[in-house]
Write a structure and sequence with these properties.
- This protein is mostly helical.
- The protein contains 19 helices and five strands.
- A three-stranded mixed beta sheet has the order 3-5-4.
- α3 runs antiparallel to α5.
- It is globular.
- Bound molecules: zinc ion (ZN).
- The site of zinc ion has 4 residues, from α10 and α12.
Amino acid sequence: MNLPQWCQETEELAKHLRLEYWNMSVGLPYSEQKIGELEAQSGKQTSAFLAHFKEPQDLVDDCIGSVAGSKTFKEGLALQDARKKIIVSSKHKLKRNPVSWQTWRQFAAQANDAERKHVYDEFISLSKKIAPIVQKKFSVAGKTYADYGTNPLDAYVRSHRMSVKHLRNVIGELKEGIKSEFVKQNKHYSEVIFGREPHYYDDFYVIRNKLYDGITMPKLDPVKSVFATIRGMGLSPDGILLDAEDRPGKYASPFMTSIVVPTDVRVSYKPENPFSDLNSIYHEYGHAVHYKSIKADLPFWTRNCISEGLAETFSIFFDKLLMRPGFLQHIGFKDETAQELRTRTRYKELYGAAFYCANSLFKIDSWEKQVPFDELAPLYAKHVKSCMGLNIPGEYWLLHHILPDSLMYVPSYMLAEMQVGELHARFEKEHGPQWWTSKEVGAEVDALMSPGSDSPAATFEKINPSMMIKQLTTER
Ligand SMILES: [Zn+2]
């Protein structure tokens, strides 16, 4: 078997498969049969690679992930389907349709307290109907990794060029560094938003939506704004496809897909709330610009085996600009609004960090300690309590949009945020308060994006959370 030929065939297969998944996720017609055939072909393709090659390591790990993916794609589809058809409210509606997992966030943004609680409780009790699907998916995936002598956690830290010990340490330090400030601010903002103490059904996504009520947004097209920002740094958003239609079957969260890196890169979103949309668009275009910037002549694996921490570095690099009053004024916000947004966004970020510390420690434990499936909900509740001081039903993890879908993923946001905290601080020091208009900054960012997985930003063994803790807990 010859590696360049294998890469070419694999890239072609991946293109067709990614297109089907794209159509499925944006609510366009797709074929389950075709997905089944392509997944089977891709499973054969990756198994053949693993039988012949022991390196490059990134590709070996990626292929193990694909074999696991091809053995569990049916459960993935069943989960997607169950979220539309089983996780459905018996009582509450949005736009005349019963509220489902797909429309939960849009509903929560406009529902009252009692309605939100009702839907939350109902969904928690329905989660037991999707639990067997998730259980099968995780056990088959875990066994596949074990067959190749590894596990999802070890493969994850390998792709981030770090150790499990360091991963645990940095998440643990972050958790301790932000907890008391989070608990304080969470109490404060619960009063501001809901006029009461925090409750278990005020999840991150409700807070994120409600937090900006009453703030006047300038008339701003989020897509035009992010284009201007990207161009201001001397980078280019050209050629990225945007799907902004609000179709009924469309995935609730915004996302970016690369069909072929770097030539076919796409962004999907549906409107929730003006400031959230601005954030999402900056985030997803950060991903898109990254994948667009990767050099086309690099080997298949260097373009495609991008660790999640490296990928999130560039999305967060752009969305974190919206934490800066100076930047908000630069894109058209009034001074006063910019300060208020900064304060509220800092709370949102703090909430996200505390929540994702819990999510990360949950994932690390579940693989490292091989926790039996029925102990996962109590384990999740324990980590949420310990990181956020909140008592929530542990089954919530089954309703999250990443935890039951991905084997690891969640620590990547925190790793990337630590890296971005350091980059922003350095750029400000070297290029002044308006550093985001500097072409030199753009060139430096491009130098981190274009090498794909060979980027200097792909190594997380030296990452530390101190800058991130400082940025989240001190008023500026
Ligand atoms: Zn992202």
